[in-house]
Amino acid sequence: MKTTLIIGAGGVSRVVVHKCVQNADVFGRIVLASRTIARCDLIKSDLPDADIVTKSVDADNTEELIKLIKEVNADIVINVALPYQDLTIMDACIATKTAYLDTANYEHPDEAKFEYKLQWERDVAFKKAGIMGVLGSGFDPGATNVFCAYAAKHYFDEIHTIDILDCNAGDHGYAFATNFNPEINLREVSSKGRYWENGEWIETEPMEIMQVWDYPEVGSKDSYLLYHEELESLVKNIKGLKRIRFFMTFGQSYLTHMKCLENVGMLGIKEVEHKGMKIVPMEFLKTLLPDPASLGPRTTGKTNIGVLVEGIKDGKKRKIYIYQVKDHEECFAETNSQGVSYSTGVPAMIGAKLMLQGKWSGEGVFNLEQLDPDPFMDEMNTQGLPWQIKEMEV
Ligand code: NDP
């Protein structure tokens, strides 16, 4: 029987655990390990009949991770802790020759900058160890990369432009809260925007470019251009691309709160002195904000995330939109989690399932668009994230 080690016990983890238990024939025994074991036990209590063991681990410590992976004899590690832990967990997988999967690319805690460089550099070590590492298997990155690969495989001879459109029309009733880890979310959203056109990166001020997109089943929403991590790998892996951009919806209240917090220094990630103590403002803010994992019971509305792809097929121009709509309350009824955690956790489970089944295989480190999209798209349809394709007017 297989053993699946899941690291991290937040909102996304809860969904991964539920979905792995639903696919227990593939995942076998679940070991759920995180910094705070009580959070692991809370998730376990959702599923009293499942084969789940909980452990405590400091995932910043590679030696501790190596010991845990060996002790439980893991076949795969699913990393749903924070991006800060990607490298230590990857190194522990290399040392123990264990397959690895995550949902977000590495970030250093002291610098609000994410890139694949240090993870891609580990490709050689993964090859040497004879193991597979899959990077960014959430929704975006994740399902959106697979949508692009699916479009390239079945719908186009050449892809010229891609717009990734991420809409969360959910309402949790709080004046201000984030749908996933507040620190990671606010660092991403308050950074400069960036998109890629004609071979170069073009930088914008944060939230400088706004466009209204009409999202099926949700309606028209203000959407802001952000830099997002899948752009880095898609530019490299989708050949012939002329432009790629990423848009995310934000309500006016969210933007006003964020601007105000930024103006007073609450989004700072450098230590400041407070009554003789050193504190990081962003970490303190995280303590004050609602835990995203607690938003599930109060969130209503839908998410709609997709890719709009334009290019050429059989000598003719073509434009398609591949998208997925999910209802927050439906997600909560199934997994005790809101839609953003659900849309991240299900693709993490699917990627890991394909690896354990050998449907995705290889040695080295892979982004999702480098792998066969078909089995992933099939699994999305049966695991709670059914998608649709629309032919659009060119
Ligand atoms: P949460 O903050 O809810 O959970 C993170 C978990 O990681 C917590 O249980 C936390 O432990 C644990 N953790 C943090 N540091 C350590 C450590 N040093 N050792 C062990 N455990 C640790 O985050 P989310 O569930 O919202 O997000 C999880 C991941 O998913 C993030 O990397 C996020 O960026 C990614 N994500 C990806 C998306 C995608 O579409 N690709 C979308 C949304 C999120 P503790 O409880 O003790 O704090």
Please write out the topology.
Blueprint: E1 3-7, H1 11-22, H2 24-27, E2 29-34, H3 37-46, E3 52-56, H4 62-72, E4 76-79, H5 86-96, E5 99-102, H6 117-120, H7 123-129, E6 132-135, H8 143-154, E7 158-168, H9 182-189, E8 193-197, E9 200-204, E10 210-215, E11 219-225, H10 230-237, E12 243-249, H11 252-263, E13 272-274, E14 277-279, H12 281-288, E15 302-313, E16 316-327, H13 328-335, H14 339-357, E17 364-367, H15 373-382, E18 387-392
The structure holds NADPH dihydro-nicotinamide-adenine-dinucleotide phosphate.
Describe it:
With 394 residues, the chain is an alpha/beta fold. Helix content is 37%, strand content 28%. It has helices spanning 11-22, 24-27, 37-46, 62-72, 86-96, 117-120, 123-129, 143-154, 182-189, 230-237, 252-263, 281-288, 328-335, 339-357, 373-382, and strands at residues 3-7, 29-34, 52-56, 76-79, 99-102, 132-135, 158-168, 193-197, 200-204, 210-215, 219-225, 243-249, 272-274, 277-279, 302-313, 316-327, 364-367, 387-392. A hairpin with a 2-residue loop joins strand 13 and strand 14 (277-279). Helix 1 crosses helix 14 (339-357) and helix 4 (62-72) crosses helix 5 (86-96). The chain is globular. The site of NADPH dihydro-nicotinamide-adenine-dinucleotide phosphate (NDP) has 34 residues, from helix 1 and helix 14.
